[in-house]
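>> Question from a student workshop board

For tomorrow's exercise we were told to take the sequence and the ligand below, predict the bound structure, and bring the output to class. My setup keeps failing. Could a helper post the expected result so I can at least see what it should look like? The ligand is magnesium ion.
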Amino acid sequence: MSKVIVVTSGKGGVGKTTSSAAIGAGLAMRGHKTVVIDFDVGLRNLDMIMGCERRVVFDFINVIQGDAKLKQALIKDRRLENLYVLPTSQTRDKDALTKEGVKAVLDELRQEFDYIVCDSPAGIERGAHLAMYYADEAVVVTNPEVSSVRDSDRVLGLLNSKSALAEKGDGSAVKAQLLLTRFDQNRSASGDMMSVEDVLEILAIPLLGIIPESTSVLKASNEGTPVSLDEKSPAGKAYMDAVGRLVGEQIEMRATPGEQRRGFFQRLLGRTA
Amino acid sequence: MQSGKSAAQTVATVKPLQIRGRTFTAIALHLSGRPDRAFFEALEARLNQTPLFFDNAPLVIDLEQAQGLDGPQDLVHLAAELRRRKLSVFGIQSGTPTQARAAAEAGLISLPGGRDAALERVSRQGSRPEPAPAAAAKEPANRMVTQPVRSGQTVFADRGDLVVVGSVSSGAEVIAAGNIHIYGRLRGRALAGVNGDASARIFCHALDAELLAIAGLYRTSENLGPDTPRHHVQVYLEGEVLRIEALA
Ligand SMILES: Nc1ncnc2c1ncn2[C@@H]1O[C@H](COP(=O)(O)OP(=O)(O)OP(=O)(O)O)[C@@H](O)[C@H]1O
Ligand SMILES: [Mg+2]
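>> Workshop helper replied:
Here is what the output should look like for this input. Compare the format with yours to find the bug.
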């Protein structure tokens, strides 16, 4: 059965696109046929981070508007057999997205893919709403700082009230999990940034993973490679662990390199499992 | 002259009058142009979806997109039509100076422009048809929420107590005509007894509120003070004072 997963945050620039690419690549590496869709109409970052921006001919909006077939717009990744990208348009705006159009595309993708990862734009307006509307699961990307946590909280409220599952009114809900990104153990310990526990206490959802702040992320995105393909990157490893948890494996919340307080993370795992 | 004298005596014997600040939630009805038959039909359809929520709800008419509607008769007529539908219209907002004068003649006050919240947020559950029969409309109805109340959400128990099994986030708002019970941490705003019930109380497991109010008397996080109890507390009115006390 295929799953639609929205990667969302409310706040901008927290790492949604980075995470969408890394999770998409990680799922594909594990053998799941995966497509990553760019819902950020007008900006088009996903295809750059995934290194296929020069291969875009048709896009998501063309498909919604009936100007192209889905097969024409899907771009197959050069490195991973099971990975596809559905890029968005840089020239249109988000009004080109319609509920019916999005549904039709997702329904068609569900026929063929195991995982459909939706890279949401920032904000809580139309684009972000449509990206989350048909989701089965949500990966809520949050940085350990107050404004990001607050926005994630708002997004969780919308997932609980304004998604197709929530609107069924039969108690169905989008399964939401927290991906804490750009985490810096030292700055968190010194109180510069929020602790993992503080964030979890406020958002009250299970923890999918903690992605450390890492220069390898920028490097990977400049090269057009999802960071999870970089085996040496601590962020890449953390993403692969998160992907394992996403597909239901029990993986210990690993400490980031150079970080000593293992017991701390183990306590966390106990809390959220 | 006689009556004048007795009035003066009466004044001397009653308690000095009290004037207090009060906040409450009203519904804003946005007009776009002149209300015609189609408008009233649409309004009725909307009211019928959630009759209880709108029953005698305080309402302001937003005239931002109805600049042409500026004769006193227009507003008198509109107010009558709304009242006939059991809406307690009391004012206008976003009106032009002419509209404000017309409103005054129609007995409506002009409110300074404010920011509205989406109605779904004011009453997420109210927007679903309520099964209660109309005859039971005045019975208290408690409301239970079993999920955290997230930033940006408002939960309103307009005719009874509100129970939240979970936390209330910073930037979220819980409002009740009666008591509010929060089995979690209150980080946002809690307003109990909003219809004036000074005996209403707020209970919560952990207190970190942005605002606490009972019957319109409120305290914000700034004036809670450092030795305010933070765990297992109740908040209640003692005369004029909002007391915060740890539960024994
Ligand atoms: N773990 C990390 N370590 C270091 N830098 C990171 C990390 N995650 C993301 N970044 C950087 O943060 C910036 C924003 O990332 P990204 O584009 O993925 O965010 P976004 O949430 O998709 O943004 P938008 O809201 O604009 O769509 C990028 O420059 C990216 O390289
Ligand atoms: Mg992005």
